[in-house]
Amino acid sequence: MAENMEFVGRAIATYIQQTLQIPTQFIDDVSWPERERRFDQGEIQVCWICGLPYVWKADQPLAAIELLAAPVMRGERYADRPVYFSDVVVRRDSRFQRFEQLRGASWAYNEPRSHSGCTITRYHLATLGETGDFFGRVVESGAHQVSLRLVLEGAVEASAIDSTVLELELRRHPDLAAQLRILQHLGPSPIPPWLVSTQVPAELRSRLRAVLLQMERDPQGQAILAASGMARFVSVSDRDYDPIRHMAQVADRVSFSPASN
């Protein structure tokens, strides 16, 4: 997840520890690729991950993962569903009024394994009949917040930002609203789920799922959810992520050749 969401991961880990009376450790002293590698190796048991790498892992012949739950975000546009959007942002004073006008513009995406920052943009271009040459320059920034900064600084002209990341940044830094404009919403897409390794005993996996699903009914849990813009956790199934599988397949028609930022 984006760096600005790490605080809620830490808070939920502590909440699980207190509720289930089991020791937990939130891993934040290594990069996200290293954390994902450790999850794949069974060294980390629970992971909150983008829907795209989730389906890649789930579709492996001997997948050793299980869905725990997925968050439902607060806000009318989420319609009480476990979905999110990719908000295409430009500077407030940008000349662009529609996505189609971005032809030849400079664009930043966070990283190629991200659905919200990269795959859905390539999917959208494919549905428009466009190619990876649509943008004049493409920069791989490394993170949504870096992409956002590049847009604000004028280093690139537009980017697709995970709506949950953008909304949290706007709550933390209200002055950003006067500097940015949302050009278009891409999505909705199935929201990043919480996963658990099947190496964890089934009884404990069940208890972990129950803790997440009941957070909204507990005052401490409510406070954690509210701080991150979440309303609650809900159960999800693998088929709920079929839209990402479809979008990824269509997106394969379009590839980016990122330049140095």
Architecture overview:
The chain folds into two domains: 3-74 and 191-245, D-Maltodextrin-Binding Protein, domain 2; 83-189, 3-Layer(aba) Sandwich (D-Maltodextrin-Binding Protein, domain 2), CATH 3.40.190.10. Helix 4 (115-127) links the parallel strand 4 (106-109) and strand 5 (137-140). The mean pLDDT is 95. Helix 1 crosses helix 7 (202-213) and helix 1 (6-20) runs antiparallel to helix 8 (219-227). The protein is α+β, with helices and mostly antiparallel strands. It has a five-stranded mixed sheet with strand order 5-4-6-3-7, with helices on both faces. A four-stranded antiparallel sheet has the order 1-8-2-9, sandwiched between helices. It has helices at 6-20, 32-40, 51-58, 115-127, 144-153, 163-172, 202-213, 219-227, 242-251; strands at 46-48, 65-73, 83-91, 106-109, 137-140, 158-162, 180-190, 194-197, 230-234. It is built from nine helices and nine strands.
